Amino acid sequence: MFAFFLFIPVPYCVEMPGPTQNVLGQLDGKNLISIEGRSFQGNGQLLMTTVSLSGKAQYGVPLYQALYSNFDSKSVVLPLDYVYPKNMTDTQYKAQNTQLMTKSQNSAIVSAYNYLNMKDYPKTQISIENIGGPSAGLMFALGIIDIIQNKNLTGGNTIAGTGQITNSGKVQAIGGIEQKIYGAQSSGAKFFLSPTSNCLDIKAEHNDIQIVAVSTLADAVKSLENIKENKLNNLQHC
Fold first, then answer.
1. Per-residue b/e over 198-229, b at no fewer than 16 CB within 10 Å?
2. What pLDDT shows up at residue 18?
3. pLDDT per residue over 35-58, tens digit each?
4. Cβ–Cβ under 8 Å, residues 212 and 179
5. Residue 41: inside a domain, yes or no?
6. Number of structural domains found in the chain
7. Residue 222 falls within a domain, yes or no?
8. All residues at 6 or more sequence positions from 120 whose CB lies less than 8 Å from its CB, including other chains
9. pLDDT tens digits, residue range 11-31?
């Protein structure tokens, strides 16, 4: 009888580290970032990071999962209404996140070309599916800059990050920062670019990865240059 109660839904969601994706690489045989007349020539990686969400909008998660996740340092248990607005369905939530992803891609393109002071945009396309939300904007913008400048900004390093970006290049806070850092560590990243406004949200001790605070796209580019040149004392850490 007790086992039956463990499967009863409770009004909570669980956020866990999600997969990472190299924005300078390929996905399903296609360049994630395609720019007409340009191609990436370096050997490093810029990893966009994600959060995996468990829990249905109307039902939450089974009791056993909520209990287990409380003991998992890499997961966080959140009230259902913290994640899903009232009366929103799973389909509506997915559609909203898809829309936010599209907006983040557009802002990444605009902010990157503004940073490069280029008024004529080469045809630029970002191809990614089944990932939503606005938080990949910073890494998309950095990928575009790296491809166009052809300077191999990563210096061969694996660098992860997150951040919503505006057309003017401001890097804004996102959710799930801890889970994204854990995901970056699992993918072998040694550096993680975090919005400065998220620094106070980072509670855990993350060993083996340097968390670099950035407030603007220009900050992020400069941080990549410092990492490439091994000027690590110049980095602004969270």
1. beeebeeebeebbbbbbbbbebbbbbbebbbe
2. 93
3. 998 888 778 999 999 998 887 777
4. no
5. yes
6. 1
7. yes
8. none
9. 888 999 999 999 999 888 888
The answer to whether the CB of 11 falls within 8 A of the CB of 82 is: no
Can you tell me the distance from the alpha carbon of 28 to that of 45, in angstroms, rounded to the nearest whole number?
17
Domain of residue 32: give its range: 17-51+100-234
Q: Say which amino acid occupies 90.
A: D
Phi, psi of 56 (to 5 degrees): -90, 150
Helix, coil or strand: residue 213: strand
Q: Which residues are CB-neighbours of 3 under 8 A, at least 6 positions away?
A: none
Domain CATH code at residue 115: 3.30.230.10
Report yes or no on 85 lying in a domain.
no
What is the spatial distance between Cα 12 and Cα 217, in angstroms, rounded to a whole number?
35
**Structural domain includes residue 45:** yes
pLDDT tens digits, one per residue of 117-163: 998 889 999 988 777 788 899 999 999 999 999 889 999 999 999 99
